Amino acid sequence: MKLIRLHQPVLTQWPDLGGFADLRNEIDRLFAAPFAGLTDTPRFASGWSPAFDVYENKDNFTVVAELPGVKKEDIAISLHEGRLSISGERKREEESENTEVYRSERTFGRFQRTFTLPAAVTAEKVNAKFTDGVLTITLPKAEEAKPKQIDVTVN
Length: 155
What we know:
Layout: H1 18-32, E1 52-56, E2 60-66, E3 75-80, E4 83-90, E5 109-116, E6 127-131, E7 134-140
Antiparallel strand pairs: 1-2, 2-7, 3-4, 4-5, 6-7
């Protein structure tokens, strides 16, 4: 199975265009509906939602998350009953009292995503690496979940 990430542009909310914001939210909801089964946590449920990719090969599932500005100690990963949960927080930098903000587009806050894995994994061998703002989690498939080659005999 191949997943393609849906990129949603961030639009500025203008007070005099409130009706368009409602239209955008409705369109987002309609496009998100067919993909709702791929993740158990809606993208709009938190202040921000980092981009995730999920890959599978014959031996592993791999989850890659873009987490710029998040510190390693602010990330929590858990695996329970075939569900991988990743949560964390990107904190706002302190601004001095004499600073005037002209534009602010970056989002901050907590996030949580939960993915239901389609096959059993070996929890003791799960590996997570965090390098340059990219989290990579490798989840080795359990032996019973790996594809088996079956030889055909001819009589």
